[in-house]
Structures are given as C-alpha cells and as structure tokens.
Amino acid sequence: MQSPDSYWLATGPDWTTGGAALPRRTGVCVLGAGVMGSTLAYWLARAGHRPLVLDRNPAPAMGSSGRNAGRLIQGGNAQHALAIEKFGHDEALAIYRATLVNRDLVREVAAREGLEATRFPTTKLDLAVTEDEAAELKRTAGALRADGIAADWLDLPAAREAFGTDLPDTVLGGLHRPDQDAVHSVAYVRGMADAAARHGAEFACGITVTSAEPVAGGGWLVTTDAGQVIADQVVVALNAWTPRLLPELAPVITPVRGQLVQTAPVSFRIPQWGLDRGLLYGGQTPDGSLLIGGLRNTVPGRDEGIDLPEDGNTPAFSPELADRLAEALPSLLPEATGVPVVRAWSGVMAFTPDRCPLVGAWPGADGLWVMAAFNGHGMPYSQVMPEQLAERILGGRGDGIPAAFDPARFL
Ligand SMILES: Cc1cc2nc3c(=O)[nH]c(=O)nc-3n(C[C@H](O)[C@H](O)[C@H](O)COP(=O)(O)OP(=O)(O)OC[C@H]3O[C@@H](n4cnc5c(N)ncnc54)[C@H](O)[C@@H]3O)c2cc1C
Prior knowledge:
Organism: Streptomyces triculaminicus
GO molecular function: oxidoreductase activity
Bound molecules: flavin-adenine dinucleotide
InterPro entries: FAD-dep_OxRdtase, FAD/NAD-bd_sf
Protein name: FAD-binding oxidoreductase
Largest sheet: 9 strands, mixed
CATH class of the largest domain: Alpha Beta
Keywords: Oxidoreductase
Oligomer: single chain
Shape: globular
C-alpha cells in the first residue's frame, strides 16, 4: 500500500518557482532537493555561484524532508553521555556544538529570508520508564551541563509540569532541554529552495539521475532521464537512494522505514518527546495536532533494510504499524484519549553502522562530494552541514563538519 501524503505535504505551499531546463554545463551540480540539497544550493548561491539542483520529484521536499516530524532536536544520534563514551569527549562535543550552531543558523536564515512563519519554538523531553534509561539520561544531563549546555533531569512531578499535560505513573522522569526548534517541513524546505533560487540557484525538478562519471581531463558527466550535463563538481544528497549513484555505499547505508500518525488538533501544547531511547517519539504541529512515530522495534526485520521503491518516495505504508502507534498514544498521553487519528504516512531514513552521517569529499575523486545518511536525524544539521560543505566545495576549510562524519571512514 502506498503512503498517503504527510501533514506537511498536504498543508505546505506549492512550489511556484518552477523548473529550469537541463543546461549542457554547470559549476556545481547538486543531486537531490531535500532539505540538504536545497540548503546547500542556498549557501553556494549566496556565495555568488549558480548551482544546479536536480530532483526526480516535481518539487523540493517530496522525499523524507517532507515526511518527517519536523523536529530539530539538538545533539547527535546518541545521548551526549553515550556519545562521549563512543567518540571521546572532544568529538562528541564537536557533534553537539554543530547542532547548536545549526539552531542559530536556522533562526538567522529564517529571519533573513522571510521564513519566520515556518519555524516555531519548542523544548525537548526524553522520558524514562526504566531505571537504566533514567540513569543514562541523568548522566547526559550532567555531561551537558559540564559542557555549558542547558539540560536538567526532571523527576515525575517536574516532568509533568514541563510536559504541560498528564503523564502516566510508569514514567520515572525525563531529560529536559530548553530552547529547541521545530519547522513546518515542507514550508521550510521549499522556502529554502525559493531563497536559493532568488540568490541564483537553478532547480531542474522531475528529472531522475542515473549516474555520475568522471570526465577525462576533469569534471563529471551527470546522466539523467532528460539528458546529460557536465559539471565541475557533483554533490550526492540522495538520502537512502545515494547507493544508486555510489554503489560502494550499499553496504554502508541501510534504508529504514519510518512512520508517523497525526491526531486532530488538541487544546494543550506539549514539548517534543522521546521514550524508550527514541524508539517511540512525538511532537506537535503548529496547529496543535499531535504526531507520534517509531515502534519499528515491535516489527523486527520488517522496517530495517527495506527494499526501496525504484521511483517512489516511500516504502510501502503499514496500516498495522499505524494502528499500533495510534493505540500507544493514550497510554502515554492520557489526555489524548478519544482524540481521533486523522492521518498516517511513511518515509525513508538512511542509517549507517555508527549512526553518523556521511558529509565530505569522496576520497580519491576530485570534485565529488556526499552529504547523506542522516540516520533519521537530519534536521538538526540541516543548515550547518550544507553551509560548511559549501565552504569546502568553494575551497575553504569547512571545519564545522565533525571528523566522525567523514565518508572516508567507510571507503
Ligand atoms: C517518518 C520520519 C520522521 C522523521 N522525523 C525526523 C525529525 O523529527 N527530525 C529529524 O531531524 N529528522 C527526521 N527524520 C529524518 C529526516 O527527514 C531526514 O534526515 C532528512 O529529511 C534527510 O534529508 P535529505 O535531503 O538527505 O533527504 P530527502 O529529503 O529524502 O532528499 C533526497 C532527495 O533525493 C531525490 N532523489 C532520490 N533519488 C533520486 C534520483 N535518482 N534522481 C534525482 N533525485 C533523486 C528525492 O526525490 C529526494 O527529494 C524523519 C524521517 C522519517 C521518514
């Protein structure tokens, strides 16, 4: 069964900028008009270049960027205390700091480009129902505070207050992090694409890329179903579809299905929340609808390593998983009992073995770059990684890309 459209696609603005024809030559060719490709085009265009963005869909944000929960959760894929154990303190802090720089950039760019209405403030509450997880979250609160980052462990009464509505007695407490953002995913990404186009980027949508091959003497031949273009540099920002162009990444990138359900609007506002180490999570849309996602651990082997549809944006939609998500909601949020579920949809995430994305140069190939596999967690990097990669593409240092994200680690 095909996925229905997401809330964001159903309520977002149409793409009115329109598509460019495929030129014969270009400077930088960006493959993919999700949040990563569109924002990279913005930073390249702001620096005075005219990047060409290609996407197989008729408009930007029709892949995962328009099907997510819109949450810009600061920090990497692992809680900070665990990230310190995994990567060492300096690298873990570099990853966390990148997402704080991202927060500031999102706010700065939204204000500059007239996208304020697409962004809304929120907080984050990671809830624990087991002693193990509570201990992990308490350690993370301490580790964050030691690094000067606002975070607190809240016991159940304080967590209830921060949540703004009741929580069941099974919750032991939660890690609270203030000053977070969420976006209307489609309005925000299409807004970034519009801003990129205003600054000189070209978007050629409805074009499927089939290969990118080096040209003798320099440059890249990009082959599409609408013809070929020669580019000085190519950036592959195709999320879980990246291995179609770069088959060496097939063993590295695992396509994972994600599903969300949306309720009718409620009268209370809640923070973005996570439970069971993020395997169940939620948030809220600007109009007050609750979003709840996850639970793929309850269907082992069905949602990880899925076959990607050849042309579609999502794997098959699972009504069974949507029902489970809808059923889980009142047991966590008693006040949501009886609130109807009005929509559910699926999307594709791209996971790597170490749960870090791939951002940087393709080793040994001059002018080939990759920015993909954000492990279900791309939005908190969605300005800073494109901005820093643009700097590298234009010959600068791009020091804000953590070393842990270097694609060379797998190649
Ligand atoms: C259900 C769900 C919930 C999520 N919730 C969150 C969240 O709350 N917060 C968060 O940070 N992240 C979340 N994510 C992950 C987030 O959506 C991704 O990390 C992010 O959108 C990745 O952006 P992207 O630009 O790399 O990928 P995409 O948006 O998927 O862009 C890739 C683009 O490549 C295009 N494409 C693919 N193949 C070709 C081809 N051959 N030729 C031309 N074009 C092609 C596609 O059309 C697509 O537009 C969620 C994901 C899902 C599925």
